[in-house]
Automatic annotation (TrEMBL):
Cross-referenced Pfam families: Integrase_H2C2
Record field: transmembrane: none
InterPro entries from the UniProt entry: Integrase_H2C2, Retrovirus_Pol_polyprotein
Annotated source species: Solanum verrucosum
Integrase zinc-binding domain segment(s): 72-124
Name recorded for this polypeptide: Integrase zinc-binding domain-containing protein
Amino acid sequence: MESTAHVEEGNNESSKNVHRLARLEVKDKQYQDPFLLELKVNVHKQKVMAFELGEEGVLKYQGRLCVPKVDELQERIIEETHSSIHRGSIKMYRHLREVYWLSSMKRCTANFVAKCRNCQQVKVENKRPGGVA
């Protein structure tokens, strides 16, 4: 399976240019998500102003791709983004929100990182060093 969440770290312009396959998958799957379909209709009727229809009818929130809750696409994007660097939940959330909009993204990201075995094994505890008063 090809990565759908590839964005380059450190280059803000590259972060905005989501991998072409991810963009196509998000666009296609938006039509399978009833919530996003309803949002698209309301955006078209100008009932919702925070969202917009981008090129080719792709739903965006403040310029970010709206990722549908179908075929575990949201989970894959979170997993692939996290697996590339294993950053903490706050950094990962900030990185994801540069490109994507997912409902409950902050909570989903925190839950995913909390369950990551690698992160839990190397996590530095906030303790005083031994022998220091």
